[in-house]
Amino acid sequence: MIRGENLSKLYGDMPALSPTNVRIREHAITAIMGGSGSGKTTLLRLLSGLEKPSSGHVWFRDEEISAISENRLYELREQMGMLFQYSALLNSLNVYDNVAFPLHEHTELDEDIIRTLVTMKLEQVGLRGFEAMMPSELSGGMAKRVAFARAMAMDPKVVFFDEPTSGLDPISAGVITTLIKDTTEKNHMTSLVVTHDVHAGLAIADHVILLWQGKIIAEGSSDEIRQSDDERVQQFLEGRPDGPIPFSRSTTSYVDDITHKPGTVRMEA
Amino acid sequence: MSDTSMNQPAILNLFGRMGRYTLTRLERIGDATRLGLHALVLIFVRPWQGKHFVLQLYALGVGSLIIIAITGAFTGMVLALQGYYTLAKFGSESLLGAGVALSIIRELGPVLGAFMVIGRAGSSITAEIGIMRVTEQVDALEMMAVNPKQRILLPRIIATTIAVPLLIALFDVIGIWSGYVVGVELLNVNPGAYIAEMVAKVTMHDIYGGWVKSVVFGFMIGMICTYMGYRSEPTTEGVAKATTQAVVIASVGVLIMDYILTSFFL
Fold first, then answer.
1. Pick from A88, A91, A150: which is nearest to B139 by CB?
2. Most CB contacts within 10 A, which of A53, B26, B29, B103?
3. Count of domains in chain A?
4. Structure confidence at residue B7 (pLDDT)
5. In this structure, how many other beta carbons lie within 10 angstroms of the beta carbon of residue B11?
6. Is the ipTM of this complex over 0.95?
7. Which of A155, A188, A205 is the last residue in one of the domains?
């Protein structure tokens, strides 16, 4: 359904994603996992069309979304939903208006029907009765659940989830994870989940892509990933501090740096 | 090695930096123009943004009324005081009304009014859009198939273009009236002479010139402040920097455009 060919992204001179081929399976959950700064969110933003790749192409069905007109992209996006890492609720609107926003924008539905749909979506995330609250009055977890309800408001065909469980308590994280799995199955959705939550990612994903330093290092079903004999994969899954993936990103000698004059920075190629 | 050859790399470096700086500025002007025009073209595209335009017009216009009224009043009062003592030296106190009205309508109303709108509303436009960038609300609109240029930029640009001339008209009226109060009530200028000279000396050409300036300033403020917010770096510091730059660039832009337009309308 969605595929990227030779996708790469540079921010200035810094490569965030090396040339990568990726295929997102239809009616399934694909989890993109990897440590911080591995290029997960960059890949998600490229596949959703929020950013243009430095090289390569993104295809949504048979249309290249990195090359189509802005109008056509908006038409395609009516079939998409996205849950942002920090919820991205519209500050000036209350919970009801946030969830109803896509329905008001893209449908001619009667307000009574919209109200019913919003109530159903909010019930799904356990926030029925909170319609009048403003985003500033919600906790992080509540905001994320409202954002989930909003992403689902139009019953999209494709949903992008950017760190859906980060910052949530275990119960809320469990609710969101279950919701992603259930709605994907019931609505025959295609879900793309970016997460570094190994437990949640492997539990719900039909297909897992593991990134490190902007490159795909492993790909397959959850079981295949679990059984991978790649040391980097096992280190990530087990959360071991020692292994081929270094915790420290410094390229200079620690001893040299701390014995250097304070306030000076030595950069080496 | 001679001094000249030693200095050459430094000079080349200086020219290089100047060139890069100029190119970057030109690139930003081009980007701002393209973004603003892109937003303006969307005025003809559904869905119409009438509700959002009215909300912005209210926030910009009604929200700036008091500051415009106060600035207009004190500008007129100071002009009357200064003008009276200058004109009195030539025995031409009767020209006070014409002097105050012409200064305010042609120059001070549009420029000071624009400055007040930049400080009061322009900065908040940039900060608001910048914060929407930081909190990914702009991306959220994109993903909900709502064009942020049409929803965020367009209503604000149109609102400033309409609100600024109206606010400046109010500034002019209050300024002339407060000049009258100071001149006639405080300094005993003949009220008939004040009004008669004002009516005789202020022409439609002066009013038209002031009106054109205020429309151009309003459009400029909208374009600059929305652009700076929309292209701000999505960090707290980035938004603060963009807000400061928007105020500085819009204020300097108003002064430069004021000179250009004045040279046309003289």
1. A88
2. A53
3. 2
4. 64
5. 10
6. no
7. A155
